[in-house]
Task: structure prediction
Amino acid sequence: MMLHIPDVLTKAQVAELRATIDAADWVDGNETSGAQSALAKRNAQLPEGSPAAVAAGETILDALARNPLFVAAALPQVVFPPLFNRYAGGEAFGLHVDNSIRQSRNGRTRIRSDLSATLFLTEPEEYDGGELVVEDTFGAHEVKLPAGDMILYPASSLHQVTPVTRGARVSSFFWVQSLVREDARRELLFQMDVAIQQLGGKVGRDAPELIALTGTYHNLLRMWAEV
Ligand code: NI
Result:
């Protein structure tokens, strides 16, 4: 499942975060790549664990923890410390799949990447190209979102970033280990959760049928979650 999560950060938070990271020193993006994706990747990145990356990452982690749509869709167990990249001057990231296991530089976080996320930190009109293209069984999906918005997609997907031919594209990217490993199961739970929330608005939260459905949701989650 691909999901657009709007307004993860406010415009003011984006501006503040950009001021922090734009003033920092950037390095070659291949520092975080596996051997295969290093061949395809051309961009700049904030050094993992650098003060600017840690400070900006904390802002994002706080926002994610308070975002009901993210929590419902990702069922996060561990969120990898957010990383930051910048594409300009024709830079791109060719077709690849993200590494299955991610370990942070300090060794404190090691996760199975179930979900990949890109949080856009540049407005679409500030650059040309730079679409995130994610492939699934329904075809290739081009994504370019307003600053502060995020796309969540299965980390198992083939994806690429097209060349940035004007301006610069700055984003945060990271991975999530979910309580529910399988995308199909997570999607079913999400659809059920959304329907339950909507139904609650119509029939009242104390309707016995709704309480029963909510129980079923939790019992499915109990069956499938790995904690
Ligand atoms: Ni990737």
Remarks:
- The domain at 183-224 is CATH 4.10.860 (DNA Excision Repair, Uvrb; Chain A).
- The chain has six helices and 16 strands.
- Residues 96, 98, 159 surround nickel (II) ion (CB under 6 Å).
